[in-house]
Write a structure and sequence with these properties.
It is a single chain. By secondary structure, the protein is an all-alpha fold. It contains 14 helices and 2 strands, in the order H-H-H-E-E-H-H-H-H-H-H-H-H-H-H-H. A two-stranded antiparallel sheet has the order 1-2. Helix 2 runs parallel beside helix 11, helix 6 packs parallel to helix 8 and helix 12 packs antiparallel against helix 14. The termini are close together.
């Protein structure tokens, strides 16, 4: 791990900073403590650093590591350059999002959105990784792992087109909120639902190595058909034509159904004894709990898969529930995003990093798992499903303090990886 230790530690540093920013946002809501910052901009800075500084560079490194093992070639110096540039670009964009959000500022006679420009520079670096990946996997037999990564990178590129389109609206003289909202969600939703989820599932298949399932092939195409339409669910209902609403709901159902198949396949593979240390696991919940705290690295995938399953259930229910529109349920959408991004994606990355670099690289991971579950639980009282009788002024302050817990756990993980023996 020595040659890429700084990449992993740099990404962990971004995770800590993004977590602190998210906690600051919650303290702003709970106590009115904002230091004069706009909380909307704080939220943008938090989410973009999680996207650009934590999950994306970590995925690049882990995918490159696994591809290197598959091809037998040494870890590429080009990947180190790309990931390093991704980390620098994410950190450069962070203060701009914190100060301006997506707002434009005067630059001479023109008005420019500085944070969006910085994010655009990040996308150029992503394309560099896509080019490297295409060359590195050339001539390799198409496995399910590579298929997931091929599709994940395709959605990464497709999502970036939404961001580029957003920057072109003003030069083209288009001042329609429907277009700007649609392109924003095309970028953010395809980036998270397509790039993140599919790439982490590819890592899960690379680690767990389940037996072949024919269902896995057709269900993957359900995901690909449905995903490009789901961005409309995040738009205000008034901006979405009735036909697109129906298409988006159907797309959401296709994605959820397809992903549920892969959760089922991967869950069955966790105890098969093919992806890491340990013997084949049987014996009920007690054995499952013991294996989680043992040296078995496969057990680390159980909680991310459970959280992905919970995310998909929410997706299925909202897709089938007539009269309910996703963007109108803001607090439930926040819970949904945390199930997916903080739950499945972040913990999945930690599980994959444990497999690739060893347990020394993720010391303190169980504390991170536990605190992530606490954060997700703290969001439940904010949603419409929480009984009104159990609500009170305590909800936001408690959520704010709990938000600090994963930051402490991730900081401990970062400090622990400084041990040169790891």
């Amino acid at each position: 791990m020595a040659e890429d230790r700084w990449l992993w530690r740099g990404a962990l540093g971004c995770l800590i900073l993004a977590g602190l920013t998210g906690a600051f946002f919650r303290f702003g809501l709970g106590y009115g403590f904002t230091l004069g910052l706009d909380l909307g901009n704080v939220r943008h800075a938090h989410s973009h650093l999680m996207y650009l500084g934590w999950a994306t560079p970590t995925l690049f490194v882990l995918m490159a590591r696994q591809l290197s093992a598959l091809t037998g070639r040494p870890f590429s110096r080009a990947v180190k350059v790309v990931v390093g540039a991704t980390l620098v670009g994410a950190l450069a964009a962070y203060p701009l999002f914190l100060a301006f959000g997506y707002r434009s500022v005067a630059l001479g006679e023109a008005r420019v959105p500085p944070a969006a420009v910085a994010a655009g520079l990040n996308m150029l670096v992503w394309y560099g990784f896509v080019v490297w990946y295409a060359r590195a996997r050339r001539g390799q037999r198409l496995t399910r792992v590579l298929l997931f990564w091929d599709l994940a990178l395709a959605f990464l590129v497709l999502a970036s087109l939404g961001a580029w389109g957003l920057t072109m609206l003003k030069p083209l003289g288009i001042d329609d909120p429907a277009w700007s909202t649609a392109l924003t969600h095309l970028f953010l939703d395809l980036f998270s639902e397509g790039w993140f989820v599919l790439a982490v599932l590819g890592l899960a298949y690379a680690v767990l190595k389940p037996d072949g399932h024919k269902a896995g092939h057709w269900s993957l195409w359900l995901i690909c058909i449905g995903l490009p339409t789901t961005f409309a669910l995040g738009m205000p209902a008034s901006l979405v034509p009735p036909v697109l609403k129906v298409i988006a709901r159907l797309g959401s159902l296709l994605v959820a159904a397809g992903l549920l198949v892969h959760v089922w396949i991967l869950w069955g593979a966790v105890g098969e004894g093919k992806g890491g240390e340990g013997e084949r696991e049987r014996g009920g919940f007690g054995q499952v709990l013991r294996s989680f705290f043992s040296h078995d690295q496969r057990a680390l995938w159980r909680i991310p898969l459970v959280l992905l399953w919970a995310k998909l259930i929410v997706q299925l229910v909202l897709g089938l529930w007539p009269g309910v529109w996703w963007s109108e349920l803001h607090t439930l959408r926040i819970l949904y995003l945390h199930l997916m991004l903080l739950g499945f994606v972040t913990l999945g990355l930690v599980a994959a990093a444990t497999y690739v670099w060893g347990r020394a690289a993720t010391r303190g991971r169980l504390w991170l798992y536990g605190t992530v579950l606490l954060v997700i639980a703290s969001l439940m009282p904010l949603t419409p499903v929480w009984p009104m009788a159990w609500r009170g002024p305590w909800i936001l302050p408690v959520a704010a303090w709990i938000a600090l817990a994963p930051v402490v756990a991730a900081a401990w993980m970062l400090i622990a990886t400084a041990d040169k023996r790891g």
